[in-house]
Design a protein that fits this description.
This protein is of the alpha/beta class. It has 14 helices and 22 strands. The strands form five sheets. Strands 1, 2, 3, 4, 5, 6 and 17 form a seven-stranded mixed beta sheet that branches. The chain starts with a strand and ends in a 6-residue tail after the last helix. The structure holds flavin-adenine dinucleotide and 1,4-dihydronicotinamide adenine dinucleotide.
């Protein structure tokens, strides 16, 4: 089997790289160890979690919000197997979509675990133990990531679960204890709270969502608290042991001190993800790693071995599907002799809770730390006509612009459809636009996007509707 390009891993990074390379005229093979294509994102990540976030939100709206809109219904009943079947059908349609795109672009999918056997050679071992060699002029490592284990706590994916187990619980746990107030903890904690669980989130730091603008994270925490999620900040879980039908969870203050125990039915460990490099033979191939266990690459995604590239969760940068996808496109272009690149200053970040949290660019904390003179314009959804009609008045849009040039440096939103609203901020920032540019752009009325315009007006001069 001889190709121009062999990609190891069919997640968003790998499959986009393969498709773009095929579109550019290269003969491409993708090696995937799992039964279906699409990687973490399509099988056990973005796609199933968003399906459950949507359906659980519909359940909550029908049960608690319809009455406020003047719609009388009897109390909705949960059909969890049907909800899970919907989730699976969404996953299946997406993974088979990648299969269709591979056929359309004449990409060969090779099933098995790939190991780099030297420059230009990947040894592929199938489930039956039979090996074959794929030869290629260029190799791309797109092997993704896996959830980080918590020392002393054994994940059995039944009672102590990672995100994978939390996406397929067979019944609604009475008490769900989440370790880590990051993206997975808050998204999947929200899913099970809406379906009836009592959710407590234990977080090591004294804040939720590290990395997100502080003001925005504090507002989000207040809203999640009102929804009934309990937070134990500045705390760490040191043990989770079976105790009859329940689990006894030991929690200690992060700074040290007396421990306490909490009973839970399910514990979700979501303390981050780490690069997945098992079985790839990287050390034998002489591929250098960075100080955090990621494959080290230069600005053109080249590893330390000629002809071998890497991208996505297995290299530096945010572990996000769209970041991996954009790198996939860039690497394909570079291998094809073009000038692919990714603008890391404009990678949006969305937490799909209700309300959603979305941001792009720099936070206020980062600007302060770098001594940047900036203006902040903030506009609450409570002043937006469309948000009032939706009964979605919690949250705000914040636009941060450089004081001297008015150039927008960051936009942070907590509120309805924040994940959709952030796109216009990304486009603006990609074109180095100013708060005035955004404020002078005509926005349809009545839309949620008017809140973005008003925040830009506030950063540049003054908002009208406040
Ligand atoms: P992956 O998607 O992890 O794909 C890597 C593939 O490589 C896998 O299929 C693996 O089987 C294969 N592989 C590994 N080693 C080998 C080998 N030796 N041989 C053959 N195949 C191999 N990101 C977002 O942007 N938005 C979201 O809403 C979002 N939600 C998420 C929800 C959850 C619960 C999780 C866990 C993650 C979520 N993410 C989300 C993160 C997102 O899934 C990852 O950033 C993205 O999948 C990374 O893409 P990738 O191509 O680098 O790797
Ligand atoms: P995370 O990095 O977002 O959050 C982990 C949290 O756990 C942090 O707040 C951290 O301080 C805390 N923590 C670490 N060790 C701890 C300990 N011992 N005890 C208590 N708390 C501890 O990681 P998460 O939520 O596991 O998600 C992994 C990654 O997957 C995300 O960073 C993101 O890149 C990706 N993802 C993206 C989504 C999206 O874009 N909507 C959705 C889900 C995942």
């Amino acid at each position: 089997m001889s190709y121009d390009l062999a990609v190891i891993g069919s997640g968003p990074g790998g499959y986009v790289c393969a498709i773009r390379a095929a579109q550019l005229g290269l003969k491409v093979a993708v090696i995937e160890k799992d039964a279906t294509l699409g990687g973490t994102c399509l099988n056990v990540g973005c796609i199933p979690s968003k399906a459950l976030l949507h359906t659980s939100e519909m359940f909550e709206v029908a049960g608690h919000k319809f009455a406020d809109f003047g719609i009388k219904v009897t109390k909705p009943k949960l059909d969890l197997p049907a909800m899970m079947a919907h989730k699976q059908s969404v996953v299946d349609s997406n993974t088979s979509g990648v299969e269709f795109l591979f056929k359309k672009n004449k990409i060969d999918a090779v099933r098995g675990t790939g190991k780099i056997a030297g420059p230009g050679k990947v040894e592929v071992t199938g489930d039956d133990g039979v090996t074959a060699t794929v030869e290629a002029k260029a190799i791309v490592i797109a092997s993704g990531s896996e959830s980080t284990p918590l020392p002393g706590i054994d994940i059995d994916e039944k009672r102590i679960v990672s995100s994978t187990g939390a996406l397929e619980l067979p019944s609604v746990p009475k008490r769900l204890l989440v370790v880590g107030a990051g993206v997975i903890g808050l998204e999947l904690g929200s899913v099970w709270r809406r379906l009836g669980s009592e959710v407590t989130v234990v977080e090591f730091l004294d804040r939720i969502l590290p990395g997100i603008d502080g003001d925005t994270a504090r507002q989000a925490q207040r809203i999640f608290g009102k929804q009934g999620i309990g937070f134990k900040l500045g705390s760490k879980v040191t043990a989770a042991k079976p105790s009859g039908k329940a689990l006894k969870v030991t929690i200690e203050p992060a700074a040290g001190g007396d421990s306490e125990t909490l009973a839970a039915d399910i514990v979700l460990v979501s303390i981050g993800r780490r690069p997945y490099t098992g079985g790839l033979g990287l050390a034998e191939a002489g591929i250098a790693m960075d100080d955090r266990g990621r494959v080290a690459v230069d600005a053109h995604y080249r590893t330390s071995v000629e002809g071998i590239y890497a991208l996505g969760d297995v290299i530096h940068g945010p572990m996000l599907a769209h970041k991996a996808e954009d790198e996939g496109g860039a690497v394909a272009e570079i291998i094809a002799g073009q000038a692919g690149h990714v603008n890391y200053g404009v990678i949006p970040n969305v937490v799909y809770t209700a309300p959603e949290i979305a941001s792009v660019g720099r936070t206020e904390e980062e600007l302060k730390a770098d001594g940047v003179d900036y203006r902040a314009g903030k506009y609450p959804f409570s002043a937006n006509a469309r948000a009032r009609a939706l009964l979605e008045k919690d949250g705000f849009v914040k636009v941060l612009a450089e004081a001297k040039t008015d150039r927008v440096l960051g936009v942070h939103i907590v509120g309805p459809y924040a994940g959709e609203l952030i796109a216009e901020a990304s486009v603006l920032m990609e074109f180095a636009g100013s708060a005035e540019d955004l404020a002078r752009t005509c926005h349809a009325h009545p839309t949620l996007s008017e809140a973005v315009k008003e925040a830009a007006l506030a950063a540049w001069f003054k908002p009208i509707h406040m």
